[in-house]
Design a protein that fits this description.
The chain is α/β, with parallel strands linked by helices and 119 residues long. It has helices at 16-27, 79-89; strands at residues 8-13, 31-35, 38-41, 48-53, 72-76, 92-93, 102-106, 112-117. A hairpin with a 5-residue loop joins β7 and β8 (112-117). The radius of gyration is 15 Å and the shape is globular. InterPro entries: Glyas_Bleomycin-R_OHBP_Dase, Glyoxalase_6. This is VOC family protein. It holds the Pfam family Glyoxalase_6.
């Protein structure tokens, strides 16, 4: 029996609305409720992403050991097409690419995320 249900994953950001728009482009989820320091993507009642104002937040120093605290894995059917799309949306491809079935990118705030090839 579960103790709890996943409601959302929140990312700290100095520019939460801009980061929400970036992930909206990647996931197709529309930007939902917003206020000055909190923005959510509208997942239709399912688990979603939220973005919280954190003016002093700094990007992790990944791939330095111990620098990565969390990241998102986003599944795609075609890595090359996914890469082109996330780069167009404002992502940066990370220099360090440790695998072949996924690719690592940095969002506009410098948070690592992966595009993972659907199995």
């Amino acid at each position: 029996m579960a103790i709890a249900r996943l409601q959302l994953t929140a990312l700290d950001s100095p520019a939460p609305l801009a980061l929400a728009r970036f992930y909206s482009t990647l996931t197709g989820l529309p930007v939902g409720p917003t206020d000055d320091d909190w923005v959510e993507l509208d997942a239709g009642g399912g688990p979603t992403l939220a973005f919280q104002l954190a003016p002093a937040r700094r990007a992790p120093d990944w791939p330095a050991e111990g620098a990565l605290q969390a990241h998102l894995d986003l599944e795609v059917d075609d890595l090359d097409a996914g890469e082109a799309a996330v780069l167009e949306a404002g992502a940066t491809k990370a220099e360090h690419q440790p695998g072949t079935t996924f690719r690592v990118f940095l969002d506009p705030d410098g948070n690592p995320f992966c595009l993972v090839l659907a199995s």
